[in-house]
Task: inverse folding
């Protein structure tokens, strides 16, 4: 599935890495590692696990593409551990898909029902993991969490009951949820952390608390600890969204409108001009429509950025068929559906920065940014 | 119309149809609007169509194309189309996108649109009072 196209795609993605986000823009962050410098390490990891050399090289490339696509969302210091967990994930999904093929052979011989007991078992495992995770919380934490999440009690009345402020309750709930996620994953994997540092590291990653992550040197620990590397992947993906970011799942026509409205709403907070707000909304409309038309399913992630200056960044991802010829897709007038080829080149013209990575049978990622002009 | 209340309204005014889009439409809603308007042009034997897009948040490649196609289909049925109410920032983004309305006539607002279509038709009375006539 990997051809020369992939290499070209990687070449095209490099500007993302040279972008402001990683280019020493955060004075307190570690030096940004060059993605290409991850290659030898990734090769070591993948080749030690996958015997077939061609297959292994494919997986290394697949990992690189994924890391590149995510690079601007990742704390510079976390890029290497992220690459490692991604490599593991890519290897695991290869094994899983081989396994799925094997299991689906039952379907061919008319044994559709064989999957059902598995699913039930999985649900029970998940329930057990939730109970186990709850046991790690203090009684007060349990009560607060359940009162809020299950009974729907609001922060203000909780605060009155606990004789504290709504803000303090919210902070406590966030910490509790972060710990819940970690304990849930530990229970689900039936794993006991091998070191004393594991829980603090995982809690910091789970809570998305960057200061705390530096304090406990989370990046280094994740590199050294097999378990934390494995668990940090779902935790990194589950990073809670703050006020300056939003993810919209894209599947239906109506989602396209939701995406562009969300983008406009977020951008409004940065005092973009009315014209810029419309340009941003229009660009989001174009790329979100591309997902509905060509990939059927995907998501649009929108975030406000402040380095090197205020702006809005949109990352649209899909798991569609991929784009075989990117140059052609970005060429004006390229005709795809009903002569509507303006989507991608149009969106590119409306934004200040635009990067597209695509991989056949894996998916396409569009990253685009608009900077606020200084008024 | 089967859009449900509120999304779009189509009013008959003499020989003209005045279609107002009241909110952002997604692609399916846009296509349904196109179909319904074309049907009504045939039914009412309309000679002119005004499409008021002032409430549209964006006019992207699909929206612009749908309107162009609509106007072309209306022309084949003997009706001329005027698009009114394109907001300045929407117009700017259409230009930036490399889009135009093609050969479709555009006008600033409803009044100018009606003037273009003949200048002798009455405007809809917004509150049910006396229709306002243009000279
Ligand atoms: Zn650990």
Result:
């Amino acid at each position: 599935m990997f051809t020369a196209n992939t290499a070209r795609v990687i070449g095209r993605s490099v500007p993302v890495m040279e972008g402001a986000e990683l280019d020493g823009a955060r004075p307190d962050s570690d030096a940004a590692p060059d993605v290409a410098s991850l290659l030898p390490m990734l090769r070591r990891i993948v080749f030690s696990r996958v015997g077939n050399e061609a297959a292994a090289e494919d997986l290394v490339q697949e990992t690189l593409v994924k890391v590149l696509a995510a690079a601007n969302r990742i704390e510079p210091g976390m890029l290497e551990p992220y690459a490692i967990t991604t490599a593991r994930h890519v290897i695991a999904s290869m094994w899983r898909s081989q396994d799925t093929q094997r299991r689906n052979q039952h379907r061919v011989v008319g044994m559709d029902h064989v999957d059902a007991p598995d699913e039930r078992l999985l649900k029970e495992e998940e329930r057990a993991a939730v109970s186990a995770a709850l046991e790690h919380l203090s009684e007060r934490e349990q009560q607060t969490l359940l009162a809020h999440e299950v009974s729907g009690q609001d922060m203000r009345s909780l605060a009155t009951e606990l004789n504290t402020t709504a803000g303090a309750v919210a902070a406590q709930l966030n910490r509790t949820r972060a710990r819940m996620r970690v304990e849930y994953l530990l229970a689900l994997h039936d794993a006991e952390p091998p070191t004393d540092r594991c829980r603090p590291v995982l809690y910091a990653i789970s809570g998305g608390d960057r200061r705390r992550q530096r304090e406990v040197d989370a990046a280094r620990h994740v590199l050294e600890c097999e378990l934390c590397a494995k668990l940090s992947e779902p935790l990194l993906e589950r990073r809670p969204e703050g006020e300056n970011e939003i993810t919209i799942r894209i599947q239906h026509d109506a989602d396209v409108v939701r995406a562009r409205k969300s983008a406009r709403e977020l951008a409004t907070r940065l005092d973009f001009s009315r014209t810029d707000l419309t340009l941003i909304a229009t660009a989001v409309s174009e790329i979100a429509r591309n997902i509905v038309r060509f990939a059927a399913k995907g998501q649009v992630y929108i975030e406000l950025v402040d380095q090197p200056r205020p702006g809005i960044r949109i990352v649209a991802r899909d798991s569609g068929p991929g784009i075989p010829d990117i140059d052609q897709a970005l060429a004006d007038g390229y005709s795809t559906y009903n002569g509507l080829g303006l989507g991608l080149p149009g969106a590119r013209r409306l934004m200040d920065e635009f990067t597209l990575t695509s991989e056949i049978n894996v998916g396409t990622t569009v990253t685009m940014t608009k900077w606020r002009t200084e008024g | 119309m089967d859009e449900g209340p509120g999304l779009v309204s189509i009013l008959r005014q003499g020989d003209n149809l005045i279609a107002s889009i009241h909110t952002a439409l997604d692609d399916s809603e846009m296509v349904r609007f196109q179909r319904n308007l074309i049907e009504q042009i045939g039914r009412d034997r309309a000679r002119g169509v005004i499409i008021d897009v002032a409430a549209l948040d964006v006019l992207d490649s699909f929206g612009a194309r749908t309107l162009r196609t609509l106007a072309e289909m209306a022309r084949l049925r003997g009706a001329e189309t005027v698009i009114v109410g394109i907001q300045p920032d929407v117009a700017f983004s259409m230009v930036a996108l490399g889009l135009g309305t093609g050969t479709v006539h555009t006008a600033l607002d409803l009044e100018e649109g009606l003037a273009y279509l003949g200048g002798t038709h009455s405007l809809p009375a917004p509150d049910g009072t006396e229709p306002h006539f243009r000279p």
Notes: The pocket of zinc ion is lined by residues A 193, 195, 198, 201, 221, 225, 227-228 (CB under 6 Å). Chain B has one domain: 8-133.
